[in-house]
Specification:
single chain, 4 helices, alpha/beta, 137 residues, globular, Nucleotidyltransferase, domain 5
Length: 137
């Protein structure tokens, strides 16, 4: 992939019980919408909002590992997107930890964008989170 290309990173977190068993799904896609990397991980017991933040954090961590400098995050969590953009205050201390970690990681990128998308457009990340939820490990 050329360095001028943008990577689209779709993130989703799920919690069954809220709080309950939680998992994340993250899909890295090129400009043509072709997935070239994904994460599907259990994260223990968490609320849905923590799972959504955790998915963003893990996507950012992995992008740094892969030396991806230009990226656009896509999430179906309006809360996380607006908190990350500073449009909503973060009052929950657990979410604040993720917000500050993500703000630190953000400085590693040349171009960082985050956008809210409808759930239907985030099907792959949702599928990955559910795969992790349903796995026996």
């Amino acid at each position: 992939m050329s360095t001028k290309d943008t990577t689209y990173i779709y993130c989703d977190g799920s919690s069954r019980g809220n709080p309950g068993p939680a998992a994340i799904g993250v899909s890295f896609q090129n400009n043509d919408g072709i997935e070239f990397f994904f994460l599907s991980e259990k994260i223990g017991t968490a609320t849905n909002n923590i799972a959504e933040w955790h998915a963003l954090f893990r996507g950012m961590e992995e992008a740094i590992k892969q030396s991806i400098k230009k990226l656009k995050f896509r999430l179906d969590s309006e809360l996380v997107v607006k908190q990350m953009k500073g449009e909503y205050k973060v009052k929950n201390k657990d979410l604040m930890v993720f917000k500050s970690k993500c703000e630190q990681l953000k400085t590693s990128f040349e171009n960082f964008e985050i956008q809210y998308i409808p759930r239907e457009q985030n099907a792959r990340a949702d599928q990955l989170a559910n795969m992790a939820q349903d796995s026996k490990e």
